[in-house]
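Researcher: Here's a chain I'd like modeled. Treat it as a single chain, no partners, no ligands.
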Amino acid sequence: MMAELSFPFILAIMVAATVIILFCGLRMTTLADQIADKTGLGEALIGGVLLGAATSLSGTIVSLTSALDGRASLAFANSIGGIAAQTAFLAVGDLIYRKANLEHASAEITNMFQAGLLMLLLAIPFLASTTPELTLIGMHPLSLAIPVIYGFGLLATRWVKDNPMWEPVHTELTRFDEPDDEGPEAKSATRLILAFVVMAILLSIAGWAIARSGAVLSDRIGLSETLVGALMTAVITSLPELVTTLAAVRRGALQLAVGGIIGGNTFDTLFLTIADAGYRDGSLYHAISDADLFWNAVALVMTAILMLGLLLRQKEGTAKIGFESVALFLVFGAAVALQSILG
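Model: Modeled as a single isolated chain. C-alpha cells:
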C-alpha cells in the first residue's frame, strides 16, 4: 500500500514518525529516571535494561519487517548500524557535559560489564557468517544462542550490581546515582511503568512506519539496502537513544545516559535473532554482503573504544571530552564517509 503513495507523502510519514520518536524518547527519559528511584534498581540497570530495550523497539520493528520482506541487508544493517550510531551519541553527550569527561563521571561497574557482553554478542555474526550455512527451525543455530547469552548477561549484570568485585575509584568529579527528592504529586511505580509502556507502543508504531518508508525509498532512489539501513533507518530509529542520552545528561543522570546506550545496543543484537527468524530464505548471515559485516566491525571497534574509556576514566581531555569520544567521532565519521562513497 505504501509503495503506491507519492514521494512527498512518504517523506511526510517519515518526518511524522521521527517527531513521535523524539517526543517519546524525551518523555521516557524522565519516566525511566523516576522508575529507577522508585524501584531502587539504580540508573545503570534501569537504563541498560528497561530504557535500552524500550527505545530500541522501533528498530526491532524495522529489522523484522525488512526480514519478512526478504531484505536481508536492510534488516542486518539497520540493527548493526544503529549500534554504531548510538555509541557515537555518547560522544555527543560527552560534549554537552561540561564538568568532566562523561565516562569518568559516570563510573559504574554494571556499564563496563554490559560493554563486555555487547562485544561478545557482536562477535557472533562473524562466527555465523564464516561457518557452514546451517539452519535450525529456519534460523542459524548461533541466532538461537544470542537471546540465551543476552538473558544470562542480564542475570549476571544484576549480580554484578549487588555483589561488585570491582569498584571504580571515586573522585571529586564522580557523579553518584542518588534518588531525586519526590514532590507531593509523586506517582506510584505502577503508574510510571504504565506510562512508559504507552510510550514504548508509540515507538513501535513509528518504527513500523519508518521501515515501510525506508524500503520504498530504497527502491525508488536506487540506494543500496546497506546504505539505507545503516545511515537512514538506523539513525532515525536511534533518535530515541540520542534524545534520552542528552536529556539524561542534562538531568545529571549520567549512569542512566551511559547505561541506556550500552544496554540499548546490547538489546539491539536481539534484532539479529528476530531478523533471522523473519528471513525465510535460509541463514540471514549468509545472505548479507561484506558491506553489512563492515558495519558489524565498526560497531565492535566503537564498543571496544568505549569500554577502554570507561576503564581509563580520563578526567579531562581536549575541550573536556575524553580520548574515547574523539575516537568515536573519528571512527563513525570515517565509516559514514566510506559507506557514502561506496554506496
